[in-house]
Write a structure and sequence with these properties.
alpha+beta, FAD/NAD(P)-binding domain, D-Amino Acid Oxidase, Chain A, domain 2, 12 helices, 23 strands, globular, binds flavin-adenine dinucleotide
């Protein structure tokens, strides 16, 4: 049985020593003379840690990439400025999965269903308690227009081999006792959707990476990166210096500013997602719950322009649409969220948005109306401007990779994103499904 990962930065000396054979600590700069360049340490610091591969960012994308690279036997270190799961990967709703692999799996199928398999691997085969359940999901349909839209979507998805069905309210109530009978129907994904605890899951991936030989280095805020031809990278944090041959950016909503350290424009912007929770209640909601309102609206106009990613709930201060997702946690809290707002890196929840979301949730699961929000929180999601993930090698740069742009579903899609990135780095060959997420389409050199 695997141990539950706790605070990696406070691990005992014996636990840390697991990786000493894979990690070289270089004191002084003599070793680096051979590379023909001087590290930052030549300017004052005297300790440089070396890892074959450095990953910046200890969210789901970074932890999953580290886990799979370590499984390939590669020497890998995560640098994280806070703790593992201290940003979006620890703050999300915990929804995962999708409608299935379909007859012709594309990148989305790989990311959603491949990740589901990896969640199962860690929870069931490796024994991590991530509160993972393959719960299924229900999406409420509020209007006739939405009903026609969802009916067509279900028909088309079924004919493409996806596992999805349309239920009337009575059928939905039979499998989800608190669901509203007042809506027109529900889209049901019986098998492909699941849920898990965000913090426990992300920490489990980091712990599994560490158990496979990776080094986790938290409390390391990366402030400068130097490139030297194809010799590798020198990465300076507020505390130390690290050198590597291969660098992986898994910095979520902060890919823009971290890209600037490398002279790159990475078109990922932070989008605030916010959530609220009731007090703990007896088990009442068993699946993940959402509403068709937003997918219907975005199918007509996704709101994207040159500086705005698709599928946001707001433009400026104006609400365009309501969006909803939620579930009941193992601790009994019913949690819901949905807003996606471009407010920079602010993670202060907006109470008005929370109230709109609570009203929306109570239209789908009536019991919610009786229970006020007792806590709220928010996090920054990494939205790419074109709405697609950015996973792969940075063009015209040696040994530089990115795993990001996973937007509002990077918890559920992060495990497979990390595996595909790790396979690419390990083999030197791009997995064919990553053609869709190739950074070459949008990452450019800064002027
Ligand atoms: C409220 C909310 C609800 C959501 N619900 C869901 C959901 O139900 N299902 C789902 O799949 N997804 C959901 N998401 C989206 C999901 O959380 C994100 O897509 C995912 O967590 C992104 O993972 P990441 O590893 O790319 O980024 P993050 O988790 O943000 O990790 C990036 C890490 O990089 C670190 N970092 C940044 N800059 C530096 C630096 N200079 N030096 C060192 N470290 C640095 C940060 O500290 C951070 O820990 C939700 C998000 C929010 C906010």
């Amino acid at each position: 049985m695997a141990q539950q990962y706790s605070n990696l930065s406070s691990k005992s000396t014996s636990e840390r020593s697991v990786n000493t054979d894979r990690r070289r600590v270089i004191t002084g700069i003599g070793t680096l003379a051979a590379t023909g360049w001087l590290p930052f340490s030549a300017m004052g610091q005297n300790k440089v840690s070396e890892s074959e591969i450095l990953i910046i960012g200890g969210g789901m994308a970074g932890a999953a990439t580290a886990f799979h690279l370590a499984q390939h036997g590669r020497s890998v270190t995560i640098l994280e400025r806070g703790e593992i799961a201290s940003e979006a990967s620890g703050q999300n709703m915990g929804g995962l999965g999708g409608p299935g692999w379909g007859n012709m799996p594309d990148l989305q199928s790989y990311l959603t269903m491949g990740s589901l398999e990896i969640f199962k691997q860690l929870q069931i085969d490796m024994g991590y308690d991530m509160e993972f359940r393959q719960s299924g999901s229900l999406t409420g349909i509020h209007t006739e227009e939405q009903y026609d839209f969802i009916k067509n979507r279900v028909l088309s998805q079924k004919s493409n081999g996806y596992d999805v069905e349309l239920l009337n309210p009575q059928e939905a109530r039979a499998i989800e006792p608190e669901i509203s009978l007042g809506l027109l129907g529900y889209m049901h994904l019986p098998g492909g959707r699941g849920q898990a605890d965000p913090v426990k899951s992300t920490q489990a991936f980091a712990h599994a990476a560490q158990n496979s030989g990776a080094t986790i280095n938290t409390g390391q805020n990366v402030t400068a990166i130097r490139v030297h031809g194809n010799s590798g990278y020198s990465v300076r944090t507020d505390k130390a210096e690290f050198i590597c041959q291969t660098l992986v950016l898994a910095t979520g909503a902060w890919c823009g500013p971290v890209g600037k350290l490398l002279g790159l424009n990475i078109p990922i912007i932070p989008i605030r997602g916010q959530m609220w929770a009731t007090k703990s209640l007896p088990p009442r909601i068993f699946q993940t719950i959402s509403s068709a309102e937003s997918s219907f609206a975005w199918s007509r106009d996704n709101g994207a322009d040159e500086t705005t990613p698709p599928n946001l709930t707001h433009k400026g201060n104006r609400r365009l649409v309501r969006h909803l997702y939620g579930r009941q946690r193992k601790n009994g809290e019913i949690i819901f969220g949905g807003d996606r707002e471009d407010v920079g890196f602010s993670t202060t929840p907006d109470p008005m948005g929370i109230e709109v979301n609570r009203q929306h949730a109570s239209e789908v699961v009536t019991v919610v109306a009786n229970h006020p929000a007792v806590r709220t929180w928010a996090g920054s999601m990494p939205f790419s401007l074109d709405g697609s993930p950015i996973i792969g090698k940075i063009p015209d740069r040696d040994n530089l990779f990115i795993v990001s742009g996973l937007a509002s579903s990077g918890f559920g899609r992060g495990p497979m994103a990390g595996k595909l990135a790790a396979d690419y780095i390990h083999t030197g060959h791009m997995p064919h499904v990553l053609a869709e997420s190739d950074p070459a389409r949008c990452v450019t050199e800064a002027e």
